[in-house]
Amino acid sequence: MDARHWDEMYRSRDQIFSGNPNDVLVTETDDLPPGQALDVGCGEGADTLWLARRGWQVTAVDISEVALRRASAAAIDVKGRVAWARADLTTTPPPAGAFDLVSIQYFPLLRGPGHATLRGLLDAVAPGGTLLFATHALADLAPRPEEGFDPADYYQPDDIAQLLGPAWNILINETRPRAAPPPAGTHHTHDAVLRALRLP
User: Fold this and answer.
1) Membrane-spanning residues where (predicted)?
2) The predicted structure's pLDDT at residue 8
3) Among 85, 89, 148, 183, which is least packed by CB within 10 angstroms?
4) For 113-144, how does the pLDDT look when each residue is reduced to its tens digit (9 = 90+)?
5) Long-range contacts of 156-164 (CB under 8 A, 24+ apart)
């Protein structure tokens, strides 16, 4: 799924997602003091805007130029609080130790050799910062061989938790019912959530 794939998806409709921030993000970060945040795979920008409107300085990264243009057009009231960046985080890791929050919400994070992409995202969390990862629960996902999709190819919270090591405190690693309706055409009823604090 390269940049062309995502650009075509966003061009297919005027709006792909609901425009609301992800419930996991709202629930798990509402108690955090604003700082520097990285929104991984920001899409149309709902999470980015929610964070920026609460005082966060957000670096919003996506591989799709179409998505970024759409997101930035909706960000008139938070100018100066968001840096929009087109990048492929599988090949270009974010700066190490730069973010008080790294939010990975339903980003298709493929397993890779040496966990290079994942380790780049973990390294981006500053000491004292928070990693927040949410994805569809494995039980809600079925292989789609015709599309080349196998859920086992993607990280789940347990996989990430096992890589964190003693420099991290795992606060939440659980599967919970979705608070919002599933995306159209899907049957996702549960979220798998990991929240971890990088020790100072």
Assistant:
1) none
2) 80
3) 148
4) 889 999 999 999 999 999 999 998 877 776 77
5) 156/192, 157/133, 157/192, 157/193, 157/194, 159/111, 160/118, 160/122, 160/131, 160/133, 160/194, 160/196, 161/194, 161/196, 163/115, 163/118, 163/119, 163/122, 164/122, 164/196
List the chain residues with pLDDT less than 70.
Answer: 1, 6-7, 10, 18-19, 142, 182-187
CA distance 62 to 80: 18
Query: 43 CB contacts (<8 Å, ≥6 apart)?
Result: 16, 17, 62, 64, 67, 71
Q: Position of tokens 């980015």?
A: 48
Domains recognised in the chain with CATH numbers = 32-184 (3.40.50.150)
DSSP assignment of 53-100, as one string? Answer: TTT-EEEEEES-HHHHHHHHHT-GGGTTTEEEEE--TTTSPPPTT-EE
165, amino acid identity: G
Amino acid at 132: L
The confidence score (pLDDT) of residue 66 equals: 87
Residue in 68, 24, 20 with CA at minimum distance from that of residue 43: 68
- Kindly list the strands in the beta sheet with 99-105, ordered across the sheet, starting from the edge strand earlier in the chain: 82-86, 57-62, 36-40, 99-105, 125-136, 190-198, 168-177
